[in-house]
Structure formats: C-alpha cells, structure tokens
Amino acid sequence: MKCFIGIDLGSTTTKAVVLDENFKQLGAGITNSRSNYDIAAEVAKQEALVNTRMNLVRQSLGEVAGLEGKLDDFLTALERNFRLEQFLEQLDDLEATCKGNATGDRFKGYEKAMDEALTETFVRLREEAPALFEPGAQRKSDFFRDIAGSRFMAVGEAVAKEAKLAFDLLLNVYDRSIIEVENRITGENLGGLVLGALDRAIDTLGQVNGTGDVIRASVKDTLALDMEETYVVGTGYGRARLPFSKDHIRSEILCHGLGAHVMYPDTRTVLDIGGQDTKAIQVDDAGIVESFQMNDRCAAGCGRYLGYIADEMNVGLHELGPMAMKATRTVRINSTCTVFAGAELRDRLALGEKREDILSGLHRAIILRAMSLLSRSGGIRDQFTFTGGVANNESAVDALKTLVRENYGDKVLNIDPGSIYTGALGAATFARRAVEE
Amino acid sequence: MNAKTKAPQEVLKEDSMWKQKEMINANYRGLARAHEDGRKVASTFVPGNLNELLMCFDFARNLPETNALQNGMRKKSGRMIMEAERAGHSEDVCTYVKADLGMMAQGNIGPTGDPLPTPDVLLLSYTGCFTFMKWFELVREQYDCETAMLHVPYQGDGTITSTMRDYVVKQLKEDIIPTLERVSGVKFDIDRLREYLKESAKAEDDLVWVLQSAKNTPSPIDAYFGGVYYIGPIFTAFRGTKEATDYYATLRKEIEERVRLGKGPITPDGELTEEKYRIVVEGPPNWTSFREFWKMFYEEGAVVVASTYTKVGGVYDQGFRHDPDNPLESLADYCLGCYTNLNLPSRADMLAKYVEDYQADGLLINSIKSCNSFSAGQLLLLRDVEERTGKPGAFIETDLVDPRYFSAANVKNRLESYFQMVNQKKQGTGVAA
Q1: Which residue of A has its CA nearest to B407?
Q2: How do beta strands B121-124 and A384-387 pair?
Q3: Whose C-alpha in A158, A186, B266, B306 is 20 to 30 A from the C-alpha of B6?
Q4: Exposure string over A22-54, b if 16+ CB within 10 A, otherwise e
Q5: CB of B413 within 8 Å of any CB in chain A?
Q6: Could you tell me which CATH class the domain B31-188 is placed in?
Q7: What average pLDDT does this structure show over A271-293?
Q8: For residue A12, what is the enclosing H or E element?
C-alpha cells in the first residue's frame, strides 16, 4: 500500500506520521532525537510504520467473531508485549556492546570482574523487564535510553557493591555503550518481535475457541503487507540534516499550521511549545499560514525549561504537570531563563514555598512568555489550537486557559491527545499533496 | 530547490564596485593624513549629515557609524564591543556606540588599518536619535573637542512646516556656520556650497534611478544587500563631490545594461538567475554576518526590491533633491526629511507604497536588538502594512555589529519559513504545497 510520511525532527523528540492515499492517518511514532538526526528520523519512521501495522491489525480483527469487547485489551497486550520484546532485544545489544567496551587500560586487572558484573546486571535487568511493561506500570519515559539508563543505575550500583567493584567502571562502560546502541537502527526483526509478542497477547484472551488461529493469520498478513514509502516530507529543527532533497523539506511553521488545520479545520490561531522554540501561528480557513512569530535569540520559556526543572527536582518530565496541579496557590515567578530555573526553584524552596505552588508558578511563567508571542503574531482568534509536547502538560494547559480568558475572553481551545504529532501530520499532508499535484 | 546563481569564473566585480571600494579606502587614508596635510577633521553621523557644508570649510569627514559597520563587516567589532563593556558600558547600549568607543580604547585604528585622527569638531546635525547625542558626549569627554549641535525637530505630524525649516536655517546661520568657521579658520562661501549641492543633486538623480530599477522583473539589483554598497558614497563623505557624481553615473550605466539584458542581481556567489521572491525590507542589515545573512536570501531566490535602510542617509525617491538655489533651506529639508525623522504613519505609508510599487511579495522587518528608539513600533508597522497590502510580513531580530546577537540557525529558520509562507500564499488557497 502507498504510504505518505511526515517526519518532524524536533530538538527533543522526533515524530513521524503515516497517511494513506485518502489523507487518513494510519499510524504515528516517536523517538528521542539523540545527537543523530538521521537515526532519529529512521527510528521515528519505523515506529510510525509499526503503529500503522498495529492499527491495521485492529481493523482486520474488528470483524472477528468471539473478540467482541476484548479487542482493545488484546491490542494493548500485543503492544505491551511487543515493547517488551523490543526492550529485551535492545538489552541484548546493550549487554554485548558493554562487554565489548570493557577493555583497555582502564579495566586492566578487572576484566573478569567486569564481565561477571555486567552479566549479573543484565540478568537482573531482563528479570525485572516484564514488570516494567505490565498493565498499568508507570515508566518515567517510553524511550529505551531513559528506561534502560535509570534501571542500569539502580541495578548496576547494587551489583557493583556486592562485587566490591567501583560503580564508576560500570557507569563508564554504560555511557559509552548506550550512545552506540541508540545510534544503531534496529527493526529488521520487526516481524519476529511481533510474533514473539503475539502468543503472550493471545494468552491474555483466555479460552476463545479457534480465535487464536484467526488472529495469528491476520497479524501475519498485516506483517507481510508491503508498505511503500511513496513520498516523505521532513520538517522541524533538524530538517536540514535529513537525507532528503529540498523539495521534501517544509518549514515547521507551515507544517504546524497545516497539521493543526487538519486536526481542527476551524483553527485560526496555533500555539506550539516545543523543546527549544515556541511558535505562534495564524492560519486561514485552508490552513495556510498568514503570519507567525517565534522566540528569537533566546529559548526561555520553552519545553526545555520544564525538562530542566524536572532534572533539578529529580522527577520525570511527565510528573511535573500533575504535581503542579496539586498547588493551592501560584507563586509568582518572573524569570523564564532556563539557566536560572534551578536557582529560582531553590530560592523559593529556601523561602519556605511549597514545591507544588512553585511548580504552578513556573508553568504560568512559560505560558506568559507564550502570551507575549501570541500577541506579537496578531492575538488569539477562534478557534485556538495548542500543540507540541507542552500541550500534554495539564498545568500548562490550565495556565493557558486562565490567561486566554483574562486577555481574549472565551475562545474554543483545542488540544488533541496526539498534539505532539501536529508538525509531522502537517508534513505528511504535504507529502500526500505533493504526489497529487 | 535551490535558486540558481550562475557561478562566476572569478570574483565578479563591476567597475562601480572597484570604484566604490577605492573611494572608501581613499577617505580612510585621507583621514589618517589629515592633520599632517593641515586639514581639520569633523566627525558627524550619516542621517542628516551636512557633508557639502563641511566641505566648504575643507574638513576631512569621519563618520563613526560607518567605521563601526566597516569594523563589523571585517569581524573586528566583537572585540571592540567587549572592550567598551569592560570600560563600563552596558550590554544594552547601541552596539555602534560600543564598537566606536572600543575602537578608540584600542588605539583608534580604523577598519582599513589606517589610524583615525582626533576630531577637531563633532557636528551633531541630527537629533532624532537621542543616542547620537550621548555618543558625542562620550567622544567629547575623550578628546575635549568642539561640538556643534543642530536641533532637528521631529516630523511628529508627518510634514515639514516653514517654521521648522526656518528654525533649522536659523541655527545653521547663527550657530553651526560660525562654529565651523572658527574651528576651520575658513570663511563660509555660499557659492561654494551651491556648487557642491549641484553635484549632490546629479548623484541623487542617478541613485534614485538605480534604486527604482528594482521595479523591473527580474530586478537587476538587490536593493538591500547590494543597495548598501550603492549608498556608500552618497551617505558618507562623498555627497557633493565630483567623484560621487562619476560613481553614480557609472553605476547607472551598469544597471541600465543589466536591465537591457534582463539580468538579475549580482550576489557574492554570482548572478542570481531565478527570482522567486520579491521582498521589501525594513531595518538595517546585520553587519557581522552580512554575507551569511545575504546568502540566506539569494539561496532561496529572494531579492530585496526596496528597503528603508537605503534611505537613512537621505530620502530621495519621494522627490527631494539638494537645491543649489536654496542652499541652506534645502540642507534643512534634508535633515528634517531623513528616514529616521519620519513618524510611524509616514514610515508605514512608505513601506506599503514600496510593497505595491515594486510588486513585492511581502515585508520583512529586521529589528535591531540594541536600537531601542528605532525598533519601537516596528510590529505595528508590520501589521499595518500587512493589512493595507494583503501581503504577508515577517519579523526577525538581529543586531548591527554585535556578533553575539546573530543566531544564524534561528534567522535561517525564520527566513525559510517566511519564504515558504509567501510561496504558499502566492499559490493561493486549496493546495498548500
């Protein structure tokens, strides 16, 4: 089948969206941008194609008798188990890479101890892996680097202690190896991973006579489907690095404008808060950009600011919004300088302010910056669509709602659950249109 | 797709370019020798400069903003600015000022390597930029030299009244001319002034013709990046000289030939053969990354067809000419009419008219981080022009000569987005390719 793919290379994450010939979204995928945009683009694309196949499985199983009411559970189980298989495959790669890197002068005299410690660490990591992908399990992030990294720290430290080995040695090897592993494209074995996950997912259905074979056949058919990458369009910060010709590249302003229009056709104003820039875009009724403003010379108040705060507080980025929502008051924060963020936070804590209240203030501060850009671009018109990673943060959304109401009155505010894919969706739409012409 | 530029076999420079370069260099050499040659030196600013009047007293002319921008283009301004900051000047001060003060602190060696002389008089003939006044105050403190100040009323209502003109002429007669006579020891001769003004008017005619040649499609010139070279002589020490008249006659001939052949503008990478976007620009260019900045335009096939920056040393395309029959009055009108002295509605009128007259696809504002007085109101200008012309605008921020404030990746990102937006708009609704 023909696939039209949009890839949005952001400073923090890289997103991809797959459309069919009828502009229908088939799938979407995301990965961390790493320091290597080529890899990030490829991985995001593969993730989107995996997601596409999963959605096709959903479609083909929709009609299967005996699966009524159980399809969602089954697909969730399939996805979870697939992620587990994928994680285990990458763990194998990481272990082999770590062992290969545990050589040289630095490790002289410790070769055996290192080998044993690494083996033990990875045995334990593999043992605990299924729990990380259990239904309802909380993960700090969905990216291999983040999950493997945080677990390696904990498990590796314990193993090193028991083996009376300096944890530094393990850490050193890990640091070198994770970059190599992350910059390798995996996925040739996609079919194997899905099939590996399939039986376990079918088991979750319990006894459903004969259904297992129908499911297996459907999944195999979907895996065998040829997905032709008919046209790919790249956008985002790293777009110049994409191995595409210039015809295949669009600015993220255009892509976000069009993506927001596709999601909500009545959109007139778009706010996108990404990792290192904030965009305020005005579009017409066809999704064509009329004007835009972006932060200049300084990334204060962008998504990275929240990332920095999360690091300072040693919590996951996902956790910030919910924490801030527990605030009983909003502390006034004036500086949105990312570098000052840590000092600002510590200063307020020292003054006896509650963590939640400070966080609420920090969220409000970044939205205040965005409000200034929005007014520069021509204000907020109905309907107003908020996109980008920060749109998933409920505290930021709460602050935005309040400030919009105070400054512009009641406006329809659209936030799509998949808002992080807006740029990639716009790019994919451009890809589909490029072939139409 | 990359817009096409025809690669030159060797560095492509037309006669006018060599001539212009030699004129500017000769002026620096002349300044270095001025005191040795028995000439007095005047420092003055580009907007509202009274070059012909200074020539009547045989002053060598030194223009601090030009020194700063030349140092910026030669990548020397960064260190000068840091020198000035060490001396206590804040990060937010105009970077022309800091580059100048830093250059003085480093021994006052000019951009070409020739030493700059101590000025004998500081002639402040345009007061619309308050920073100019403070700048000369600092220079005066350093050199303890004479200052002459011409107060130029702001065109708050968008017109020059006879009272305003009389007020400026009165100052010229009663204050400026006597001061210049005293400092130079030369008696003022109004007929000498008339002769210079005759030359000015001729050069102004040719400059206007050259700038308006951009109304052709394709435009034979880039009226911003190329334009800053064209305005070099007439905005500085050469207005009123025979050399300037010759330069503009040569330039005009070259451009006439380009028009005849239907050629596009010359860029540092050769001739632009495919004009994709026609843009009007407001605000000065960034000097420290001038080439890189220009490249972001011509690589995309964008040509600047009109700019307000090429009017800061004189707005000639709206009809004003220096007038030998009314010498002092026309000097007054010149000072009162310079672009920075226009109020916001007049600037908006001018920009909207440029977008229409030059069949431009839109307006781009390059706002200057360290210029608080001139950057104020630019967003309003942008919106006003967008509304009046229906053409899309964009806003970027850089700086004059502080290399720290030119973020190439960000500027390029904005520009590419803008050009694609223009393209999308040109193709109309429906299919946003």
Answers
A1: A297
A2: unpaired
A3: B306
A4: eeebbbbbbbbbbeebebbbbbbbbbbbbbbbb
A5: yes
A6: alpha beta
A7: 90
A8: none
Taking only Cα atoms into account, the Rg of chain A, rounded to an integer number of angstroms, comes to 23
Asked whether residue A192 is domain-assigned, the answer is no
Q: Is B430 exposed, middle or buried (0-12, 13-18, 19+ CB in 10 A)?
A: exposed
CB contact under 8 A, A254 and B413: no
Q: How far apart are CA A292 and CA A257, in angstroms?
A: 9
- Whether A14 and A62 map to the same domain: the answer is yes
Please, which residues 370-389 of chain B have a Cβ atom closer than 8 Å to chain A?
A: 379, 383, 386
| Chain A residues closer than 8 Å to B392 by CB | 289-291
Residue A249 backbone phi and psi in degrees, to 5: -125, 135
- Let me know whether A368 and A270 are in one domain: yes
Whether residues B395 and A437 touch (CB distance < 8 A) is answered with no
CB contact under 8 A, B1 and A246: yes
In this predicted complex, what is the ipTM? 0.74
For residue B208, the Cα-to-chain-centroid distance in whole angstroms is 14
A interface with B, Cβ–Cβ below 8 Å? 237, 245-247, 250-254, 258, 284-294, 296-297, 376, 378, 430, 433-434, 436-437
Predicted pLDDT of residue B6: 59
* A235 phi/psi in degrees, rounded to 5: -150, 180
Domain tally, chain A:
3
B421/A contact by beta carbon, under 8 A: yes
Q: What is the mean pLDDT of chain B?
A: 93
Q: What is the residue range of A300's domain?
A: 266-415
Model-level pTM?
0.83
On whether residue A71 sits in a domain, the answer given is no
Confidence at residue A72, expressed as pLDDT on a 0 to 100 scale: 83
pLDDT higher than 60, residue B149: yes
Instruction: For tokens 């943060």, name the residue.
Output: A393
Q: Sheet containing A2-9: which strands, arranged edge to edge?
A: A25-32, A13-19, A2-9, A228-236
Question: Same structural domain for residues A250 and A343?
Answer: no
Measured between alpha carbons, how far is A49 from A4 in angstroms, rounded to an integer?
11
Select the residue from A289, A377, A425 to test the B interface by mutation, using most B Cβ atoms within 10 A: A289
Q: Among the CATH numbers 3.40.50.11900, 3.30.200.20, 3.90.550.10, 1.10.730.10, which is that of B5-12+193-427?
A: 3.40.50.11900
Pairwise CA distance, residues A410 & B16, whole Å: 60
C-alpha dihedral sign at A32, A37, A42, A48: positive
Find chain A residues with C-beta within 8 A of B417's C-beta. Answer: 251-254, 289, 292, 294
CB atoms within 10 A of CB B401: 29
Nearest in space to B400 (alpha carbons), one of B63, B62, B45, B70: B70
Displacement of CA B35 from its chain's centroid (Å): 28
User: What is the rounded average pLDDT of the residues B130-149?
Assistant: 93
Q: Are residues A430 and A411 in the same domain?
A: no
* Residue of B300, B370, B379, B413 best to disrupt the A interface, most CBs of A under 10 A: B413
- The answer to whether the B5-12+193-427 and B31-188 domains have the same CATH topology is yes
Q: Please judge whether A251 and B379 are an interchain contact, meaning their C-beta atoms are less than 8 angstroms apart.
A: no
| B5 has a pLDDT exceeding 70 | no
Mean pLDDT of chain A: 88
**What is the separation, in whole angstroms, between the first and last Cα of chain B?**
13
Please give the residue of chain B at the shortest CA–CA distance from A435: B433
Q: The tokens 């400073």 sit on which residue?
A: A11
Same domain, A152 and A247: no
Confidence at B103, pLDDT banded by 50, 70, 90: very high
Residue B1 scores a pLDDT above 50: no
Q: Which of A20-24, A150-154, A246-250 has the lowest mean pLDDT?
A: A246-250
pLDDT of residue A101: 92
Choice between A299 and B315, residue whose per-residue pLDDT is larger: B315
Domain layout of chain B by residue ranges? 5-12+193-427, 31-188
